[in-house]
């Protein structure tokens, strides 16, 4: 198929330096609504969110999406399911060999993400400062001395070095026997996890259960570099973010990463990314993406800039990558149509990159239940949505961990946010 003529409204090719508050760009373009929509769909397609770009491994999906949002138990499984070429691929999240190549840690906006090791190293080091700061503040607020937490951390390291991964309640019980209180143990666990000394392992066999254990990071992930220089880490993280999600505004980048504007702009400059500036209908401020990715878009056939129907996870990374420019997928919808009261994006139904409804897992019947917004999906495309709902229902059913309630301990169902 021949490539369509570029739909750019205006172009310029004069390199310019705009100062510390914005990054240097080598081109500037203005996109109308149709061009902007094509570009947004191109971004989604590159992640695997199009029939012709579905991916075949969990690692490939996590790499293309810059991680899997993991603050809610179903999210990683549903995120993979949305991008997978086969309904069996999400099940490999429970394969120990796959787990050894993906690590779950708190990073961007202090939120849990499951990432390939190289991306995890950058995300960890780039965001360590404020995560460690908060953990230390919690220690002070609880009235415990740093010496007591250091002693508990040393005991933790010794225990896990001898025993390997342990369920967190077992850790508490063993340290209580060594005269270390549960509150101090929990503070030590949190601080050691934030610092990268310990790793969190969810050893469940289903997306609906959590079996929370901790291990020494050096043992569980010997290939994970937890000592990356923070400046280098920011450069690598922003390079990956712009590559996967550009075009983005500076406000998008600061919100997504929780880094300051100065850190974001300086990191982009140091990384040496050749940027194009874009003016779009999504925001008054300019957006930025790499010149290479923009050139790929301009040359892409129309078929590569359409994504059809997608069912995205709760807090899906494709939507949480943006803040200022959420109009790219909201259109004229109010944010309350898809975001809950604490700012989480609900599981959504997308049609060619635009939200047309939400969906939920109905535990009683084991069904995915959609709630579409009237008038947003052409009648002739309703069949595609029904087929996608049926497929996701079967995929989610296949990943359920069915254990009699009497055998499931309360601790095993605790969400990570309680850690």
From TrEMBL:
Matches recorded under Pfam families: AlkZ-like
InterPro entries cross-referenced by the UniProt entry: AlkZ-like
Span list, region Disordered: 1-28
Record-given protein name: Winged helix DNA-binding domain-containing protein
Organism this protein belongs to: Nonomuraea glycinis
Top-level taxonomy: Bacteria, Bacillati, Actinomycetota, Actinomycetes, Streptosporangiales
């Amino acid at each position: 198929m021949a490539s369509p003529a570029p739909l750019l409204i205006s172009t310029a090719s004069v390199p310019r330096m705009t100062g510390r508050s914005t990054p240097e760009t080598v081109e500037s373009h203005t996109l109308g609504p149709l061009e902007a929509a094509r570009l947004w769909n191109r971004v989604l397609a590159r992640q695997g969110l199009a029939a012709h770009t579905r991916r075949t491994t969990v690692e490939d999906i996590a790499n293309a999406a810059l991680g899997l949002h993991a603050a809610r138990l179903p999210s990683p499984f549903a995120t993979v399911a949305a991008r997978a070429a086969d309904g069996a691929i999400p099940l490999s999240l429970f394969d120990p060999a796959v787990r050894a190549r993906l690590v779950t840690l708190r990073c961007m906006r202090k939120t849990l993400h499951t990432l390939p090791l190289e991306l995890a190293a950058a995300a960890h080091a780039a965001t360590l400062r404020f995560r460690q700061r908060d953990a230390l503040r919690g220690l002070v607020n609880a009235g415990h001395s740093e010496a007591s937490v250091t002693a508990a951390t040393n005991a933790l390291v010794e225990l896990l070095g001898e025993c390997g991964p342990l369920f967190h309640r077992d850790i508490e019980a063993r340290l209580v026997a060594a005269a270390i209180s549960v509150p101090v143990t929990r503070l030590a666990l949190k601080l050691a996890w934030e610092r990268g000394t310990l790793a969190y392992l969810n050893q469940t066999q289903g997306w609906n259960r959590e079996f929370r254990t901790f291990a020494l990071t050096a043992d569980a992930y010997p290939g994970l570099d937890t000592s990356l220089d923070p400046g280098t880490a920011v450069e690598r993280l922003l390079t990956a973010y712009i590559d996967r999600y550009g075009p983005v505004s500076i406000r998008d980048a600061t919100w997504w990463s929780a880094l300051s504007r100065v850190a974001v702009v300086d990191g982009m400059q140091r990384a040496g990314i050749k940027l194009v500036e874009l003016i779009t209908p999504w925001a008054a401020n300019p957006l930025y993406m790499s010149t290479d990715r923009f050139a790929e878009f301009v040359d892409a056939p129309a078929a590569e800039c359409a994504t059809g129907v997608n069912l995205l996870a709760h807090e899906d990374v494709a939507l949480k990558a943006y803040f200022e420019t959420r109009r790219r997928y909201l259109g004229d919808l109010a944010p309350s149509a898809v975001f809950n009261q604490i700012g989480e994006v609900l599981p959504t139904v997308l049609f060619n990159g635009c939200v047309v409804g939400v969906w939920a897992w109905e535990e009683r019947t084991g069904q995915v239940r959609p709630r579409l917004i009237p008038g947003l999906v052409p009648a002739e495309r309703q069949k595609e949505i029904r087929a996608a709902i049926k497929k996701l229902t079967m995929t989610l059913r296949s990943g359920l961990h069915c254990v009699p309630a009497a055998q499931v301990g309360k601790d095993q169902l605790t969400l990570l946010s309680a850690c």
